[in-house]
Amino acid sequence: MSASSKIFERIHLPAEQYKTHFLEWIMPYSRNESMTKYAKRFAEQITEENPVIVGVSFGGMLAQEIARIIHCDKIILISSLKTPKEFSLFFKMTKALKLYRFLPINTINFTERLLMKNGTKKIKRTLSIYRKYLPLRSKRYLLWATRSFLHWKAQKNTVTMLRLHGDKDKIIPINKIGKCELIENGTHVMILTKSSIIQQHLLRYLS
Q: Rounded to a whole number, what is the largest CA-CA distance in the chain?
């Protein structure tokens, strides 16, 4: 949910055929802003007609919301959900018990800064990678994103869609996922670790 567009840096589409635009998360007005209202504001960044929208994880959910607002040619979901029915038991319980309200964001950010200053070289190297690809640390944004993720109510969407999902995804387990193109040994971060395979799927689908 806190990933920047840098997660797509290993995906290279032929510039003579495709024009790519990398979009960044915008700040929600409040932690209670609806996904629909957020998607309308987010979609203002999209200036091309009939775009193909690619979304990873929470971004895939937002892509589907955007497709209800503007005309899209296609949607590509990577490591994402198509319907709340695909939530794991963990997320269903977290929503039911409202445990997300106790997410210790300030404590997490403080601990990260402490480890970055005093941790081992391995810890510092790992945190540097997190900071590069997962830079969003705003409490307002993270509380909004967590709540929006868990309370998402998908609407029927008729836009042509490609789904890519890893068989080793522990965040959104494959056993809950509907029809998709399976990426062998793909985890929830396969956009980084399986980028060449994902790129092949994208090129084949777009062609």
A: 51
